[in-house]
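Hi V.,

You were right to ask for the full record rather than a summary. Here it is.
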Amino acid sequence: MPIGAIDLATRIEIQDFYYYEAELLDDRRWEEWVALFAPEVEYTAPIRVTRKSPAPDIIDELGHFDDNKASLELRAKRLRTDVAWAEDPPSHTRRLITNVRVRPGDADDADGALAVRTNFLLYRSRGDMGAFDLIVGERQDVLRRAGDSWLIAKRRIIIDQSSMSTKNLGVFL
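Predicted structure:
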């Protein structure tokens, strides 16, 4: 991507958007978080495997998540009930979002769409025993303008671990 393809003001706006998103998730404001997604969103997290080159290490046909807006809304509502056992009591989380890379979207994306890649680190602790999970990866998003803000039209989450040590993945990435 050529330097300067996206103006500085837009870059800062996009970074602030992602910091706000992380705040919503860490504060357990899931319904507000779901509102950041476009109605037609694709929210996926394919499986990563360890293979010898040149075989691909990402398997898009299998995934940790393969959600749309309706399933994200259901998952968010479920976290407010007493049957979300994986999150009862709720996890304490902190999401660190870094390396925000913004470029113009592909020609087949909606007008003014942006392709954004971010790195994330999710710290998650459960209970009082001092155990915690670290989940690290990259999010590949397509953002589109919605009035004076942005909507996530597509999110592909690439988790760096081939084998995750977490007992469950009851939180959003």
